[in-house]
Design goal:
The protein is mainly beta and 634 residues long. It has a single domain, classed as Maltoporin, Chain A. The chain has six helices and 35 strands. A hairpin with a 4-residue loop joins strand 10 and strand 11.
Length: 634
């Protein structure tokens, strides 16, 4: 497998698998052959999500085949979301490259939400109420991402003792939460460990595994004030010839967040301090990021249907690079990720105006300033959301706005932040409209249209479906344009009979000032659906199917590889299934036996389709992930 830069195969957690899949030879994953040719209701704590926000509750995610009970693994079931590789949680969302998609956990920004190699999310599902997809433009609270923001919403503190434990083929996990101080406080602790590497390494030369942990304590210290502290983190280790070349690597991150919340009748203020440490390393190099962030968020009910929101934050990132003298790519790594201290400041002001009970108007503006190595860049981004209930069953939502971020092109890699501001920020301009209709039998129909334009983007993945980690990538800036229509008809999967049918029709183009072509990840049609039903003896069964149309072929010529305007790779069809049999042992204890499989038909996926003198198709897989496990709830 080619080197993905910093760690010679270990720079990337999920992106290392991308490297294998994008046409770089890997005997375990690829083979080459010639070819001539709705939103559920989410129980959330704190400020509700903005209008037009698709959401999935944890209960919904448990019923979705291929998500393995994880709300964050269910994000790809939402319209407009296309994984770079099926099952791998690194997404193009409405045309936005993966490095332009942000991740937030309970107000805390994190570098990634998923473990490597088709692993689960880095958060125990029991600690979440659900996941919110802030389709671009995101709410003004969220900065630093030109595209969408995926928000993991925490579960509300429990008023009684609760716990979960699970044992599956590839990992084991547990969560315990208990109130204390007569209900004035709550403490939660959870963890997960993968023993897949122990089993897999016994059968091959490969070695990989993951772990994660969470600690959350909330305590009411006055009638209107509460104090909270949370610590969470995750790590991945991998190595061996097929997974990471000749060497292995380690990646991981940690966060410690301390916050104070004062909630009066008309005013609520939250102030927080977050410490972080990210790392990516192997035997010849290491990249670390020690961070400090302070923030304040305030909301005030001004009366007459007007609510004002204000927030400000400041961040410091101390980034350190250590690389061996004999590394062939040492100069590129130093240019891309130099040792330095970055600074950032941001703030937002928003107003939620309700002139009528059926109408909400939310104008806002966000400003950000970034500094790195003596260079500065800033942005002022206006945003607007309008929601109107036309009747008791029909609502309409419109969203417009601009979002900016520092240039970056390495998705989901802790500490891998590009250090150059010389050519300015990446900017995204967005508009979308959605109509939602509540139908009988708890059915919901939504239809929407969107357009997103991105300027000054660094996107080697979307340009030619390849990952080039060299300093020259920073000079290859592009503009992207994505348009699409999204349809979804669904009934909650938690019902005795539930399911959904979703379809996205989209176009994604790119231009670099010289060439205008389709994006390397332009998939015109994305169709998927799921059906969940309760059978006899309380057995629940679910089936999920999806179809992605093919991406543009790469025409090889004197000017290099460019996406074709006429030829496309074959489409991809995947089927997942899930079976669950619950057993109620007592009023406080329930046991469930769960069997689940992602890609049950063992379908292979096209990864690269090159046409020069002849056409050659590179496929992956089949990537099949089975799971059999026992879950306990008490």
């Amino acid at each position: 497998m080619p080197r993905l830069g910093l760690l010679r195969g270990a720079l990337v957690t999920e992106a290392s698998l991308i490297g294998a899949a994008l046409g770089w030879s890997s005997p375990a994953l690829c083979q080459t052959a010639p070819n001539d040719a709705t939103p559920a209701v989410v129980v959330v704590r704190g400020t509700p999500p903005g209008p037009g926000t698709p959401a999935l509750s944890r209960a919904q995610a448990r019923e979705l085949p291929g998500a393995f009970g994880d709300p964050l693994r269910a994000v790809d079931s939402l319209p407009g979301v296309v994984p770079t590789i099926s099952g791998l949680p690194i997404f193009f969302i409405r045309g936005a490259p993966p490095a332009s998609v942000g991740y937030v956990v309970d107000g805390v920004e994190v570098p990634l939400l998923y473990h490597a190699f088709l692993g689960p999310s880095v958060l125990h599902p029991g600690s979440l109420s659900g996941v919110v997809l802030q389709s671009a433009p995101a709410d003004v609270r969220y900065g630093g991402s030109a595209g969408a923001v995926i928000v993991a919403e925490p579960s509300a503190p429990s008023a009684s003792f609760r716990g979960e434990a699970n044992l599956r083929l590839f990992d084991a996990g547990a969560l315990v939460e208990s109130p204390f101080a007569n209900g004035a406080g709550s403490a939660l602790v959870s963890g997960r460990y993968s023993f897949t590497g122990l089993l897999y390494s016994a059968l091959s030369a490969e070695d990989f595994g993951y772990w994660d942990y969470q600690l959350r304590v909330r305590r009411k210290i006055s009638p209107r004030g509460s104090l909270g502290v949370s610590a969470f983190g995750a790590g991945d280790h991998y190595g061996g010839e097929a997974l990471a070349g000749a060497v292995g690597g380690d990646t991981g991150f940690h966060r410690v967040d301390l916050r104070y919340t004062h909630a009066a009748r008309r005013v609520s203020v939250t102030t927080g301090v977050t410490l972080g440490r990210d790392r990516t390393e192997d035997t010849s190099s290491s990249l670390t990021d020690r961070s400090l962030r302070v923030r304040t968020d305030l909301s005030a009910d001004l009366g007459a249907g007007v609510e004002a929101r204000f927030g400000a934050d400041a961040r410091l990132n101390d980034i350190g690079l250590s690389v061996a003298e004999n590394r062939a790519d040492r100069a590129d790594l130093i240019d891309l990720f130099p040792t330095r201290t970055d600074h950032a400041m941001g703030g937002y002001l928003g107003v939620r105006f309700r002139p009528h009970r059926r109408l909400s108007i939310e104008p806002g503006v966000r400003a950000d300033l970034f500094a790195s190595q003596g260079q500065h860049a800033g942005a002022v981004d206006p945003r607007l959301a309008v929601t109107a209930r036309l009747s008791s069953i029909v609502s309409v939502e419109h969203r417009f706005g601009v979002a900016s971020q520092k240039p970056n092109f390495v998705p989901g890699v802790p500490a891998a932040q590009v250090g150059s501001l010389e050519r300015g920020l990446v900017r995204g301009m967005h508009a979308s409209s959605t109509v939602r209709v509540a139908l009988p039998l708890e059915l919901t129909l939504s239809a929407g249209a969107f357009e997103s334009r991105y300027q000054n983007v660094v996107d080697p993945l979307g340009q030619a479906r390849e990952f080039r980690l060299d300093a020259a990538s920073l000079d290859e800036r592009q503009n992207l344009l994505a348009r699409g229509l999204e349809l979804r008809l669904g009934r909650p999967l938690t019902r005795r009979l539930g399911g959904y049918l979703s379809y996205t029709l989209s176009w994604a183009r790119r231009t670099d000032g010289r060439e205008d072509s389709w994006s390397g990840y332009d998939r015109r049609h994305v169709l998927q659906g799921a059906l969940a039903v309760e059978l006899w003896w309380k057995v629940r069964a679910a089936l999920r199917g999806l179809y992605y149309s093919g991406f543009p072929a790469l025409e090889i010529g004197d000017g290099g590889a460019l996406p074709s305007s006429t030829r496309r790779a074959p489409g991809y069809v995947r089927l997942d299934w899930r079976l669950e049999r619950p057993f109620r042992v007592s009023d406080r204890f329930q046991l469930s036996v769960v069997a689940e499989m992602l890609n049950a038909t063992a379908a292979k996926e096209a990864l690269r389709y090159e046409c020069g003198g002849r056409c050659e198709l590179v496929t992956a897989g089949p990537l099949v992930l089975p799971s059999v496990g026992v879950e306990a709830f008490f």
